[in-house]
């Protein structure tokens, strides 16, 4: 019995020592290495900024937009639709209309009016860029090029109203502007009459307008009550529209009708700023029934 107990004690002690010896190396392996050498950084790890290449044609400022009624997104076509008192702002440019579409792929915004329950147009597009403001039936504006295509536009330069069937607007921030805002008009008439459908004006198929400086027209003709007047034709013309005192043509505010002389224009002529304190106006009148005069 004693021998059996003694063998049991010896066997248990040996097993304990074996287990203790095997545990010591395992415990030592869990200690953090104090080796001063550090592994090289993985050369495949890139800076997050290096993963994205920014196009040189990308828009360099934020485009702001909003609408009163609703905003709808088409993620597949990358289109944004704005309904009801919609607006879009980019740098100095603003467009307001009742309906605006933004194409994020081409960076083009298109503004149009909407029809109300009576079939009347509401929210006619309005464009502003710096000093330039005008209304139109449709406006397309490219953020990258700072150029716009406008349909049935009415703009104002000082006291002159310009009605264009189709207009191309180039902002002075564009590379093609030469430092000035430039407006190219097709089938346009400019006048001093402020009526929606002007009673008279100078019509031409092509016009170039440099705001606050000059209007240049090709072959043109004077229209009165939308009727061309062949005797009053111009092969070309340069019309200063500077807000400063400068020589230039004076236009009447409206045409008039006389039972004796018929339709005619009164108080049109030329202005001469002689000096800081003296200027001269040469005014005249002309009527369809072969009557004219100079004041």
Write the layout of secondary structure elements.
Elements: H1 2-29, E1 64-66, E2 70-74, E3 79-90, E4 93-103, E5 108-112, E6 114-115, E7 121-122, E8 126-129, E9 132-135, E10 138-142, E11 147-157, E12 160-170, E13 182-191, E14 200-210, E15 214-217, E16 220-224, E17 227-234, E18 237-240, E19 248-250, E20 255-258, E21 262-273, E22 279-287, E23 291-294
Antiparallel strand pairs: 1-3, 2-3, 3-4, 4-5, 4-8, 5-10, 6-7, 8-9, 9-11, 10-11, 11-12, 12-13, 13-14, 14-15, 14-16, 15-18, 16-17, 19-21, 20-21, 21-22, 22-23
How would you portray this structure in words?
There is one protein chain. This protein is mostly beta strands. Helices cover 9% and strands 51% of the residues. The chain has a domain at 58-244: Lipopolysaccharide (LPS) transport protein A like domain (lipopolysaccharide transport protein A fold), CATH 2.60.450. It has one helix and 23 strands. The strands form three sheets. It has a six-stranded antiparallel β-barrel with strand order 4-5-10-11-9-8. β8 and β9 (132-135) form a beta hairpin. The longest helix is centred in the N-terminal third of the chain and has 28 residues, at 2-29. It is elongated, with a radius of gyration of 39 Å.
């Amino acid at each position: 019995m004693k021998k059996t107990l003694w063998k049991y004690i010896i066997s248990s002690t040996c097993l304990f020592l074996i287990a203790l010896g095997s545990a010591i190396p395992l415990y030592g392996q869990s200690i953090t290495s104090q080796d001063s050498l550090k592994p090289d950084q993985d050369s495949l790890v890139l800076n997050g900024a290096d993963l994205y290449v920014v196009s040189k044609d990308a828009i360099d400022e934020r485009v702001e937009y909003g609408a009163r009624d609703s905003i709808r997104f088409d993620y597949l076509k990358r289109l944004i639709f704005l309904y009801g008192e919609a607006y879009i702002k980019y740098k100095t440019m603003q467009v307001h209309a009742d309906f605006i579409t933004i194409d994020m792929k081409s960076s083009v915004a298109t503004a149009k009016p909407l029809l109300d329950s009576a079939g009347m147009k509401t929210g006619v597009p309005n464009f502003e860029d710096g000093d330039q403001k005008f209304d139109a039936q449709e406006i397309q504006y490219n953020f990258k090029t700072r150029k716009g295509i406008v349909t049935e536009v009415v703009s104002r330069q000082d006291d002159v109203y310009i009605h264009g069937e189709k207009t191309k607007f180039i902002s002075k921030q564009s590379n093609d502007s030469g430092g000035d805002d430039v407006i190219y008009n097709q089938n346009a008439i400019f006048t001093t009459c402020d009526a929606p459908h002007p009673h008279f004006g100078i019509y031409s198929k092509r016009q170039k307008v440099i705001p606050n400086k000059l209007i240049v027209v090709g072959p043109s003709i004077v229209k009165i009550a939308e009727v061309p007047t062949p005797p009053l034709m111009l092969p070309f013309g340069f019309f200063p529209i500077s807000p400063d005192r400068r020589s230039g043509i004076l236009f009447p505010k409206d045409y008039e009708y006389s039972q004796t002389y018929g339709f005619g224009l009164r108080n049109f002529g030329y202005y001469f700023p002689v000096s800081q304190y003296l200027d001269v106006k040469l005014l005249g009148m002309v009527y369809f029934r072969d009557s004219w005069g100079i004041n």
